[in-house]
């Protein structure tokens, strides 16, 4: 067996250089190339693997990061290479950073073991946003670790320090950001209590699969994480991004829902005094746009006229006619409204505000308006202006005014032995605390996407998209040098780069990175000791 063939097979005895079903192929452009169509299950405490990233767009509403990449100021290399592949409403954060306005970034770490190179992705994302001007928050999810993973407080303290040292060593500025533990942050715990009023067991069961055997503390830790996500907005609403892996998306979706439920006022479109759901609003909008066809006075179409039109010729050609029942419901409401004018307006609904807050809102709405018991119809405000006004009134009246948090999602790193990277499988990952020589050896023993022989590699090229070692270059070792990362990829798939030499180069780069990182960790020890974070928990258990 040649040296390059031994290198291709790796130290774990794998012989095909391929990947199991949960492997994610990393294309040169960062795209997703897998044909795997297994169901995707997002479990924040389960196996961290996704077989088909496209299904995250289809099933969970995550949007492609490429949709906003061109407008991101000074994008991080993880963004440029497609490692950060998805986002939820990232544009407000991006716009705020570009305009020099307030924004925030927060992510947390459950200290269940040593920080490894997979965690570095999140460290880098927090630090990059801080460098772009965002308020940065890094938290230790110690309540979650204790409740969901049954770690002792001594274990948590030990691992927490290691996570924080690596975050500081990579460039987090504690003077310009905030580090905290869930268990010692009273503001987070108070907010969690308030958020818990808006959540219930059935909802948590539906999202997370909790049942009668689930510990109450585990459920409580979820609400605490919701408070973490919204914590950067306690001093005022601002666009906030949560960098996470896709397995954490259930947390993000719940936090977005709770942010909305905590709002005093909701803002929506309306066309008459009655309520309408989203599908009915589509019908009403199209009926209003067609008023020239049926209204005696098109400047003041009547609801009864619109209802008659919908029940006859109009209903046969509306785009919303495919929405089951929406057209009929809208026509019924219009008919009941009688001679009331069909007229666009912005509606501000009082959800949680007290009488004083609602009165303040009424006073704040200028121009023509109609005031009802639980809402205001404003005829001279567009949706965006009304939302800003409602939020300002809410904050003035003691409310939170939360903006829905944004999120960005990075792909999981493949384990060095193939399959998923796991903290419980030492050979599959490289700890940021590994001895540099051990890091070198792990890379040298890694599985690759090489061919069976050097001759076939030269003839057919390597399969970089199925190679954990190439991922090391793309995610870490190439740093900000896109040209280097591209050259490694093209030399591999072109047959010029053989696995033995490629792994040797990667192993040397990894050894250098670990040595430099650990030297930097030693340098920031005093910085951590001076930071405003409790490193030893007073708790027992």
UniProtKB/TrEMBL annotation:
It is found in: Cytoplasm. One of its GO terms (molecular function) is ATP binding. It catalyses: tRNA(Trp) + L-tryptophan + ATP = L-tryptophyl-tRNA(Trp) + AMP + diphosphate + H(+). InterPro entries: aa-tRNA-synth_Ic, Rossmann-like_a/b/a_fold, Trp-tRNA-ligase, Tryptophan-tRNA-ligase_arc. Residues 1-30 are annotated as: Disordered. A motif ('HIGH' region) lies at residues 111-119. It holds the Pfam family tRNA-synt_1b. Residues 1-11 have a biased composition (Basic and acidic residues). PANTHER family: TRYPTOPHAN--TRNA LIGASE, TRYPTOPHANYL-TRNA SYNTHETASE. Belongs to the class-I aminoacyl-tRNA synthetase family. This is Tryptophan--tRNA ligase. It comes from Halovivax ruber (strain DSM 18193 / JCM 13892 / XH-70). The gene is trpS.
């Amino acid at each position: 067996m040649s040296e390059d063939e031994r290198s291709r097979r790796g130290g774990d005895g794998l012989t095909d250089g391929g990947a199991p079903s949960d492997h994610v192929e990393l294309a040169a452009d960062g795209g997703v190339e897998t044909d795997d169509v297994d169901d995707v299950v997002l479990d924040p405490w389960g196996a961290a693997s996704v077989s088909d990233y496209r299904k995250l767009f289809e099933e969970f509403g995550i949007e492609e990061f490429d949709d906003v990449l061109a407008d991101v100021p000074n994008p991080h290399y993880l963004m440029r290479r497609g490692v950060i592949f998805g986002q939820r409403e990232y544009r407000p954060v991006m716009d705020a950073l570009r305009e020099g306005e307030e924004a925030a970034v927060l992510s947390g770490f459950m200290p269940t073991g040593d920080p490894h190179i997979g965690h570095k992705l999140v460290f880098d994302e927090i630090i990059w946003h801080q460098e772009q001007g965002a308020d940065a928050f890094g938290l230790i999810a110690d309540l979650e670790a204790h409740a969901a993973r049954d770690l002792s407080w001594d274990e948590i303290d030990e691992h927490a320090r290691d996570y924080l040292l690596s975050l500081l060593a990579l460039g987090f500025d504690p003077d310009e950001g905030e580090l905290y533990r869930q268990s010692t942050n009273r503001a987070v715990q108070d907010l969690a209590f308030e958020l818990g009023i808006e959540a219930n067991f059935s909802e948590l069961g539906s999202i997370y699969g909790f049942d009668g055997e689930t510990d109450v503390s585990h459920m409580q830790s979820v609400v605490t994480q919701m408070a973490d996500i919204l914590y950067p907005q306690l001093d005022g609403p601002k666009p906030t991004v949560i960098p996470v892996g896709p397995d954490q998306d259930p947390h993000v979706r719940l936090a977005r829902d709770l942010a909305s439920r905590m709002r005093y006022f909701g803002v929506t479109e309306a066309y008459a005094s009655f309520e309408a759901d989203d599908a009915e609003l589509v019908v009403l909008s199209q009926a209003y746009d067609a008023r020239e066809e049926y209204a005696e006075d098109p400047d003041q179409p009547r609801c009864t006229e619109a209802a008659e039109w919908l029940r006859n010729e109009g209903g046969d050609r509306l785009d919303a006619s495919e929405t089951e029942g929406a057209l009929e419901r809208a026509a019924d409401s219009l008919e009941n409204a009688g001679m009331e004018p069909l007229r666009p307006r912005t509606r501000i609904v009082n959800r949680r505000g007290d009488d004083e807050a609602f009165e303040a809102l009424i006073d704040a709405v200028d121009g023509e308006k109609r005031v009802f018991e639980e809402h205001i119809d404003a005829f001279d405000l567009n949706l965006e202006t009304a939302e800003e006004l409602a939020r300002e009134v809410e904050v003035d009246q003691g409310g939170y005014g939360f903006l829905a948090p944004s999120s960005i999602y990075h792909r999981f790193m493949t384990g060095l032995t193939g399959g998923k990277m796991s903290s419980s499988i030492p050979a599959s990952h490289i700890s940021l605390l590994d001895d540099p020589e051990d890091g070198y050896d792990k890379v040298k023993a890694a599985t690759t996407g090489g061919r069976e022989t050097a001759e076939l590699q030269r003839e057919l090229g390597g399969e970089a998209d199925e190679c954990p070692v190439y991922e090391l270059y793309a995610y870490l070792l190439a740093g900000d040098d896109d040209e280097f990362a591209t050259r490694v990829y093209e030399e591999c798939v072109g047959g010029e780069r053989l696995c033995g030499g490629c792994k040797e180069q990667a192993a040397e780069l990894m050894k250098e990175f670990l040595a430099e990182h650990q030297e930097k960790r030693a340098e920031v020890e005093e910085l951590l000791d001076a930071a405003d974070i409790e490193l030893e928990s007073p708790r027992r258990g």
